[in-house]
Amino acid sequence: MLHSKERMLTPGVLCLGTEFVSVHETDHVVDIKIEPETASNSILYFILPKASLAKKFTIEVNFHHPRAALTILGLYQLHDRHSVEIQTTIHHWVPHCTSKQIWKGVLHDASKAAFEGRIIVHPKAQKTSAHLSNKNLLLSKMAEVNTKPILEIEADDVQCTHGATVGCLDQNALFYLRSRGISVDDARQLLIDAFVHEITDDISYEPFKKQIESWVTHYVV
Amino acid sequence: MLKINNLHATVGDSKTAILTGINLTINAGEVHAIMGPNGSGKTSLSNILTGRDGYTVTQGDILFLDKNLLELSVEERAAAGVFLAMQYPVEIPGVNNSYFLKTALNSIRQQRGESPLDAFEFMQMIKHYLTEVGMDEKFLKRSVNAGFSGGEKKRNEILQMLLLQPKFAILDETDSGLDVDALQVVAKGVNQMRHPDRAILLITHYQRLLNYVEPDFVHILMNGKIVKSGGKALALEIEESGYASL
Fold this sequence. Notes:
Chain A is an alpha/beta fold. Chain A is built from three helices and 13 strands; from the N terminus they run βββββββββββββααα. Chain A has helices spanning 171-178, 184-201, 206-220; strands spanning 6-10, 13-16, 21-25, 29-34, 41-47, 56-63, 69-78, 83-92, 98-107, 112-121, 129-138, 144-153, 159-167. In chain A, the strands form two sheets. In chain A, strands 1-2-5-7-9-11-13 form a seven-stranded mixed beta sheet, covered by helices on one side. Chain A has a six-stranded mixed beta sheet with strand order 3-4-6-8-10-12, with no helix packed on it. In chain A, helix 1 crosses helix 2. Chain A is globular, with a radius of gyration of 18 Å. In chain A, 37% of the residues are buried. The model of chain A has no long low-confidence stretch (mean pLDDT 89). Chain B has eight helices and twelve strands. Chain B has helices at residues 42-50, 74-80, 97-111, 119-133, 150-164, 180-193, 208-212, 233-241, and strands at residues 2-11, 17-26, 31-35, 55-64, 67-68, 82-85, 92-96, 143-144, 168-172, 199-204, 217-222, 225-230. In chain B, the strands form three sheets. Chain B has a six-stranded mixed beta sheet with strand order 6-9-10-3-11-12, sandwiched between helices. The chains are: A alpha/beta, B alpha/beta. At the A-B interface, helix 1 and helix 2 of A face helix 2, strand 7, helix 3 and strand 8 of B.
């Protein structure tokens, strides 16, 4: 039984620390809206289920109350010809709010992902801290990712960063592991796990840590 | 143990020859040193011996314990007993050092038909070797080589060598950039590996390491070829008069 401030919004998406969350689901689209309370500290975990029917996720966050902080830790892993589209929009309307997003993508086979992360800091939202990172690992020549981090800043006293990377497995690391006798498959898996676990290592909420880790491992295989 | 016959190789997509006819026989129980100026092919040779991508052998062959080494995958070579202590050990953030060491040891044991060690047996073994190389147990909890100093990385290489107990260990410039304490740890580790059933190949720029680990043979590599071989006196000769004198 979840506490009122702990909600499984849809399979793989867990929200902690805020009550003002709404979810709208249709066959292939999941829309999530969050409006964090004053001085709240909330987390949204997004682990895309392996067999997700939803093709598109939108997450809209509106900071209408001061001193609120929200962290989003997101992971999408796709196989075969699956594709996903993820859009996040963070509106900072009022001062002294913090948003932090770490998104990681692992793309196998001929899978495709589109990620768009928009941060809008409105004129009154001074002392905003907003950070967004999206890192992607391409494991096949057929895999594809489009990533678009967008910052729109209309206030002058803010701290904002955003960045996106797309890369392949580190061949030097792969060679190093294999030269110690580890099979190529195990070595690849070790490196993928290492990439993915940045998302789970930060989970401090014990009751869900195990569950989320089992999701991650499950989806990695 | 190792027999390299007329080895020619190119690197990358270029047709430029990086090795131009290496002949070298290393028997069990021997310690060989290869010295040579920058760009002479020392690191290419160690990479080809361990199966790194990016090199093409155009002529010649390599026999290791009577097997064609070039036909084996990187991990099969490791299981057969080839070990390379790398010049630049790779940092792997997110991969726990202890997990890495245990996976490596058990992968090799499995390929050799030995039973895997459980967590307790592994800890007993690794603690012993950590003491040998003067590393604190906290290194086990860190990511592989991530944020390690130059000396710590090289100690970690020696730790892996002691743990995996290879038959043939190549040390590629393991001595470069080390302070005296770390150099002595490396030397102690290598000397500990000296055994009638094992062979060691030291690749180095300098005579310095050879003061601590006495080689049976010294070879000078220049332009992809061994131009001179001799005993340890040859290393001293090079130290005094340089490669240009050859």
